[in-house]
Amino acid sequence: MGNLKCTKKAKMILVPYPAQGHVTPMLQLASAFHNCGIFDTILITPEFIHHQIASSIEPKDQILCMPIPDGLDKDTPRDFFAIEMAMEKNMPVHLEAMVHKLVEDGEVVCVVVDLLASWAIEVANRCRVPVAGFWPVMFATYQMIAAIPDMVRTGLVSDTGIPQHLGRICFLPNQPMLSTEDLPWLIGTLPARKARFKFWTRTLDRSRTLRWLLVNSLPDEYIDGKHAQSVKSSQDHPRVFPIGPLSNHVMTKNPSFWEADKSCLDWLDKQKSSSVVYISFGSWVSPIGEGKVKNLALALEASGRPFLWVLGSTWREGLPIGYLERVAIKFQGKVVSWAPQMEVLRHKAVGCYLTHCGWNSTMEALQCQKRLLCYPVAGDQFINNKYIVEVWKIGLQLNGFGRKDVEEGLRRVMEDTEMQNRLKRLHERIMGDEAKSRIESQTWARFNNGALWTSEGGQPRRNRRLRHLHLKTRILRFDICGFALDLLLGLCLCLEIGLCLVEVDFVLVSRKDEKIWA
């Protein structure tokens, strides 16, 4: 996939958190940078991830994949806690050696680190390479994590992250109201919740050393602009650059950790337009439990609507006896272990998506203009659900899997023409031609007159090659996620001429010329 020693281009190292929902947006970011055509991107993942995706990335993508050992036994399940141990104990020494080697071979201008892989921030700092954070989901979730110290100080949660009053409402700035039961670290047993909270506090502490944070979020998460706020760097938080949604940026191929069953596309071809319910609860957390699988299965069958359900083989034990054969004979249901999701969502037969509200899935549904029936399971999904249901109003929340709940939820979502109209308007605002023309009338990025590069002694010095920059000054744009994003191209230009990431001041103006980001 390329020889690093043969290239004279500057290099950017990307370190994702090793899970499908994090590797995908990092690859989209790499693809966006590659479209600039001016430097190499190097994706560093544990060996078990590398083996799953490397063969799917084509040479023309110009994404160099490099593995590092995770130190785990071959038969060890790669769950959250095993991955955390590998990241904290085993992987840093290997990444540090690799970064030092890459620096020796050529100019490494930046390391971009998924904040959930915050261990790599410390490695980059030790290697004296500029480091930028990457937040692959909604900015509102970052705001919630950043509010942890205030939650502890005010007694909303204990110093181990356990809510002091279940069901109490969290009043966080510029966010829909959330219950303390919806906090992202409240997954699993009590010890597991405490361990996840410790993970998040450590992530927050490490992120304080960052100067920049690229966020795969909408430029204006609150569409009406009433709840807008300025996002500025401070002593405790990096400067935030909203660069999403990256899902709207077309990649040649989106490598999946699992082989997709494309027979479902042939099945969709035989269904009526907008008639099919697509069900998928993502790839990370165990979906909904055996009992709920059974209830949902019976409810879907009773609804009489055709459905395509992504359900792993280990979870099919919860299905009623003879269920798969029964729905297949009636030509009502198709159950697959994994589906080519974007192809499914683009299909005209799909009329509704029953989703866990993962951020990637949410943005893909928005991109394909599919209405949502929401059943959040864990993590950031509760926040995403609030935006889908209460702010954007492009979906409904499903509170249970009883037959009446499912039937009524599907009916309301699939027959609500106003919801479809709101979805269309939101899509146009965020991903369509309207967004492009709106951005063209604004100044997205204005670079500092002088950029800083960190010398070996840790002191800033002016880059000598900066003097050539003003001779070539021009507005650069490329289409990413429906926006002419000067910011990202500006970063790429600076990377090519050997600068570190430059702090950028920019303003996003709403239709009424209200400042949303500054």
From TrEMBL:
**A Pfam family this protein belongs to?**
UDPGT
List the keywords (alphabetical): Glycosyltransferase, Transferase
Q: Does the keyword Glycosyltransferase apply?
A: yes
Tell me where on the tree of life, at the top rank, the source sits. Eukaryota
Q: Which GO terms describe its molecular function?
A: quercetin 3-O-glucosyltransferase activity; quercetin 7-O-glucosyltransferase activity
EC id:
2.4.1.-
**Protein family membership:** Belongs to the UDP-glycosyltransferase family.
Name of the protein: Glycosyltransferase
Task: Give the species this sequence originates from.
Answer: Lithocarpus litseifolius
Write the lineage as a comma-separated list.
Eukaryota, Viridiplantae, Streptophyta, Embryophyta, Tracheophyta
